[in-house]
Write the structure tokens for this entry.
Amino acid sequence: MTEPHRDHVLVTLLGLAPKHATYTLGDRRADAPLAPVALYELLPAEERPTHAIALCTPEAGETFALFETELPIPVERIEVPTGTDDRDIDAFLHAFTGAFPPGTPVDLTLDLTHGLRHFALLVYTGALYLRALRKGDDAVRIRGAHYGLLADDRRTSRFFDLRPLLELPRWVHALETLDQTGSAKPLSTLLREDPHQSAQRISQELDQLSAAYLSALPLELGRSGHELLCQYRKPLGKHLRGLRVPLTEGLVGTLEQVIEPLRLETGSKDGWKRQVPLTENELIRQGALIDRLLDDGHDTVAFGVLRELVVSWVLWRLPGDTSAWLDRDARSRAEGRLHTLRTLAEQPSEHLSEAQRELGQFWGTLTDVRNGLHHHGMRRQDVLGDQHAKARERVLTYWRETASRFPDIDLGVGGHLGPLLVSPIGMRPGALYSAVHASREALGAPPAHVLVLCSEATRQLADEALDAAAFEGPRTKLELTDPHGGLDELEDFVERARPHLLEASAVHINLTGGTTLMGLLAERLHSAARSLDRPVRRFGLIDPRSAQAQLDDPYHPGRALWLDSPPSTPQQEPPVD
């Protein structure tokens, strides 16, 4: 796309009593009665403005006439107040900026040599305003800014290039934006203006840093920050010095100060995440990111990261190897433990300590707040209402007072009564008999407890089948009033079974036998066991004999078909995601 035509305007200030002087720019010299006239002559032909605007007070009429005569391009006069009243400042800036209305893309070369002393500051401020607010095809660009410093003998004046002073606020603003919002976009934009490859590479890394922060990706953010400080800190300083931006070391130091708390030293090869260990320092680093996101008002991503950090904290505190802490199975294990604490904390329970109850309540509230934000309010509750605000404060209070220290809270709950077998029973008791044999074979010993799903008609058959299987442990019968259509009974049965599931060190669930409703109940108990972080396996039973043979000899072991793989340890069975 062809760039629209852009005017190039010389903006100058005119005072009183002009005098001839010799002006220099680089190794070139020019004699002129006014600095802007000399500047025009000293600029390379391709850098010369096409017309000029002079800002002058009513008293500077004679000086403007001389300027109009000496300068070989069209000249426009804009009258400005002297600035003896505070209101004159606004009038001056309106006069200056009003000379370039929207819809007029323009390049400016500024001469700040003459005029009242404070006029230079006002033009400087107005130029910053125009450049900051005029973007795209309508942009105002500063091509140059000059000040002619008169020598004591009034014979030779050197032009100073002041454009670096106009650049400095842009870099300061970009760093301030990074510090306050986490967005590196303004910094990246400034670097993209330079076509050099080194500037482009730094810009790309800053874009990654910004994306990682605003998307709340703690590991990617840490890696990007490390790359910036290790590989691009010196090139950035060199780039700024090349632009002659003042206070370069301070700017680079500020960048380092902002990024340093979040940086994470990582490998540079593919799969670098697998090399990141789960340590207390890593938890603290991610906690610092959460605090910063909260301070910046990024609640949605902050609560998302906080949820993941709590999962990592629990993983760190659970026994076992944490090298696979980013794997889904490992994280599901920790989530299951937290969900167990939440489930028990929501009802009277003797199984929890006070610390465990507080953690369970925190996890429940955090999950609710996080879900409301991450579903972007697509729920009946008002996620900006008082209820949400109170829940948010409860989460933050626990985070700041307890969780941010990652204390060693006992996470073990239940599992004291050994393996549990859950099985339905219908009019053919052989399924329960075979289920006991299958569980015994898988465990290498009989289950410690059997939970039977039965009806009034099959209650007695359950005892017969268990006796035939030589099961001598405790047996609990959950009796369905309507074993065929009592869907409304299922939730109550799950609640009655929950204590038995919690106390089991492992749960085997047989899906064969009984009515369809009993099979649905068995699946519900499977989900409940997983939600309580119990290692759980389902299985079905096959008896290839004829129906008559099964009736004649019901207590013949069938073949078990296991639907779930056995966990390597009881704690590693992944619960529901």
